[in-house]
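ok trying this again, last paste got cut off
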Amino acid sequence: MIDIHSHIIPALDDGPTDMEVSVAMGRIAAQEGTQVLISTSHSAEASAVGHEGMLERLGQVRAAWRHAGIEIQLELGVEIFLDYETLEHLRSGRLWTLAGSQYVLVEVPYTPWPAYAERALFDLQTAGYTPILAHPERYTAIQSDPNLLYRLVERGVLAQVTSAALLGEQGDKVHRTAETLVRYGLVQFLASDSHNVKSKRRMPLLKEAVQVATQLIGEEAALALVTTNPASVLEKRPVEANPVPVEARRSFLEGLFGSGRQR
C-alpha cells in the first residue's frame, strides 16, 4: 500500500514530537503493509525550512527508520494550505508537489468554504498541476452538500479521504460524509494523515479502512485507493476518476409522511 498523506518528520509541525515517535509510526505503518509513504508536513512550517532543508530532515527519518529495520520507501511532499499565492509559491520553489510529480496536496479551512477555492484550484490546473483535496469529509460545506466535491472532481480535481474518518474515529458527521464520498466515487485516495501514535485517529493505519471501503465499493475499487491511484502519483501518470452525483436527501417531513406523489 502507498500512503500519500502523513506527518512523520519530528519536531516540525503538529506531527511526531521526536524521532522516537516517528520510528514508532514507521513500525505501525510497516505492520499495516505500507510500502511507500509520502511525508506531507504542513506548508507553513515546511516552507520556512525550505525544500533542501526538508529533504535533509526526511533523510534523517529514512536513516532512523532503516536503523530500526523499517523497510518503507519515503518520499517528500507537503500539505499546502491553499490560498491565492499557492501557484506562485509552487513556481518559485517555496512549495512543492508530491514526490516530484504534478500532483499537489491541498487543504482549505474547515469552515466556511472559501470563496477563492474554485479559482485557486482552477489556476493550479491550468498551470499543469493536479490538485488533490485533503480530507474533504471534514469541510462543513461538503458535509452539507457532497455534490460540491462532485463538481470539483468532474473538472479534474482529485480528493483524499482519511482512514480514521472511515473508521468512525473523527465523529459521526465526518464518518457519514466519508462513507458517502467513497460510495459515490468522489475520492480517489485513502490515506492515514498520521501524526503520532497517541490515538487510533492519528496513527498510520490503512488496513482496516480498506476493509470498510471494500464493503462500500468492492475490493478492487477499494484497493485502488491505496495501490493503483497513489502509484500513478509516484509514476506521474493520470488518475482516473468516475464520480457519481450524490442523490438529494429527502427531508424529515418527506421521510415521515412520504413524498406526496400519487402511486
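PB: full thing came through this time. The chain is about 45% helix and 15% strand.
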